[in-house]
Design a protein that fits this description.
It contains 17 helices and 35 strands. The protein is an alpha+beta fold and 866 residues long. Among the domains are: 482-526, no CATH class; 560-632 and 644-706 and 729-805, no CATH class. Helix 9 runs parallel beside helix 12 (688-710) and helix 11 packs across helix 12 (688-710). The longest helix has 27 residues, at 640-666. WD repeats lie at residues 92-127.
Amino acid sequence: MKRKPSIEPSPEKKRKTVETMAARYPLQSLFAGLAHRQPSTCVSTSSQGLVVCSPPRPNALSLYSVSSDLYTLNPSLGAPATAKKVPLRLAEAHHQHTLSHIQWHQNGTTLATADETGKIALWHLENSVENWSLTYEVDLKQPLASFFWLNAERQYTSRETDDQGCVFTRETVVGPRNPFGYLAFVAVTAHGEVSVHFQRNGSIFSSFTTTLPLTGHRDTCRSDTGCYGMALAGLEDWERLSHASMAFDNEGDLYLATFYAELPKTVYLYKINLRFPHKTNDGAIHCQHVTELSFVQPPTPLEPVAQPETPVTHILLSNDPQGLLLHVAFGNQETSYFGKWRLQPTTQQIPSHYFDGYSASAITNECIDFHHIYGFALDKRLITSAHCTSSGLVALGLSDGSIHMEFQQGQQRLQRYHAEKDSSSIYRSFWQVTDGYLDADGFADPVVGIAFSPSETHLVYMLASGRIGTSRLTQDLEENGTEDDIHVTRLEQALKLSLLNRRDNLDLISEVIRLGRQANSQDLPDRITNNVLSALESFNSQTNINHLVSNQADTPEFSLSDEMSLAKIGHAYGFAIGVYRRLPSKKFAFTNLTKALQLPIILECFIGSCTSKHTDIATALDVTTGDEAMSALTFNPESLWSLVYLSMWVLDYTRWVLKEWNVLFNSRHPEGSDISTRASHAVLLVHRASRLALMKILVMIQQFSQFTLQGQYDMTQLTETKPMLEREVKIMTASIPVAIDDVLVFLKALHGTAGQLDQSGHNNSLAILIKAQLPAVGPVLDGLKKVTSDYRSKCAVPSIYLEKHQDHPVDVIRKRRIALTEKRVRTCMRCYQLYLPENPDVVDPSAYSTWFHSMTRRCVCGGIFC
């Protein structure tokens, strides 16, 4: 009898089946892990907006970054369709065991990873999410109980006032600071060893170590043996730390809360004082036992936690304006509990018999102790994840896949502040962020990791199956209400802080977009953007941070400068581009901002490639004086090929902007129409910074062409391409539709007339690009028409209309379109501009793309390439 051949499914069907299956352990296994040690960190967000995730077991060891707009796209459960997951292969190869800690540094470019064996590594993020480098590695040979970064930067913070509403100040660095380098962290192992690792120079690190007071040791001469080796040798009877957490208080003191699973249920609090080494002494760590919190007789709502079968599952220290907070979660197979305590001063009576009769009465001692705030129980649900914001608000993830978060008391931040009972939440001071999630098989998917966006307006979480989700935490507003104005004011303050602290603001931009989509609020994004840009330019020009107050009526007028620093104005461009990129009705503003930002970057490329003296370059670029007598400039021969293609891009841009200008002024219009009411890209010639940058680039193109055709130089690389280079420059200069000299004369005449237009009706330099309209100023507008009419014979020739401009991704190096399937094409997370690198061994890296900043190796808007 013949057997019927089996039908083998196609590889596509196999792959699809594997991806849809939820790989996770049952809840009993998850509960056992929580009772045994502090939960692993599965997701972490950086100040630059990059999310790094590591799915829990039983998934294979992996570490990847999720780079996309996770907030504006309003994604549902799971990563959005446009999200790009890039694995961090170096870290996956470095760690052979499950990762227990994933934490970003304050600067957002250094990532710390630690596995369950105690192996720690620091990874530095380069220009894109695909390029990482190992900065430091160390093997502690013991599992980590806690990992904590030490601060290295001074941050701007806002402070409420009675007269001005809000004042911004730059505070000192909180806590101890590494005097030798930028990076420093504190690691606490499961056996009570506290070590400080700090950067001395580059990849050179040093460390010093101590031991917690209440940790017993046996056979201390075997300190070089790891915990697994001691277990095999029968020496593992140490008092093991199962849970630990560290945090700074308002005074900058570092505190450590620990819990020993082998001892009675008691949380110990230590104050850690760090002294970094100097020339004459070594580093030192002083661990002072401050107080302890025993659960032998817990408060009434938490009475069952005294039972041995209800272990501690989470310990979390946080800080709010009133002091240090301790969050503790308990759980068993049926019920979980959560309690919150505050560290505050108290008095303690010492009986007189303790002093053998030397004191006649009791002595009062000043000390600090934990004060219980609230506690509650949850039936048939387990607390599987917990995380706190910078203001002390806690978010709890449950075993049914739901997330609940505390209300904030007051209206100081953007989180929800209505302290009303949420019937679907777990307690009266909590509200439900997300609902529970069930898989196709009907089983709940627990939350195993929680993180917050850079400005804490959104929550990013990971489920046990490896799925990623985001949810908004901001207040739901009512139309035309008083709370709307308060929320808008808080949003503007948060945007100013993000720009001052050079922090990613995509989560805040999503809030601006959400407000603009509401009824009768279409003009709200423009108002918020202009207010933030005006305050930022006032601060940059006058170096007074108090000009960033929320009262915009008192904001001084901005001062125009011919040499505005790109480091100061670059983040303002990035913020405005991020807003108008996501508004379909603002395509003109988005195009104007992107074109205006490319010009100063190209000018930097020309200046960086020039080898002449600084005085000669400054004389050549003084385009407003009209002095034509200047010496010829010289350039680096190895950068000439890059400058050829940059020059072609600039000449195409000049053709396009002249066409837009002449269409606006020289085309036929209906009778009685006003050209100042029409949106046009011609405002780029009226924008002062863009006009001056274009004039200087055209001068540099003239100098570059003269040097290439007449100069004496030798190319050490690609020597055989010198004749081809000269031919390309000749063709480029011969195919210009309007001579560069004529364009410069027209722009100089326009500069004298449009100079009065720059300061009329605008409170920041980008307002005219955003509005995309010429102001209706009679004398100035008549002057622009007269200049256009005078130079119509030279700058309005028909040849500039032959090519139809169309916005599409173009590689300015290879002078061709970039296909979306092109390999090694990277997109900026904020402005979605493309960056395609060339061969770094041949071409100058500073000329890869007009969107590539040579100083920070990032997009000039501040985003990361992904």
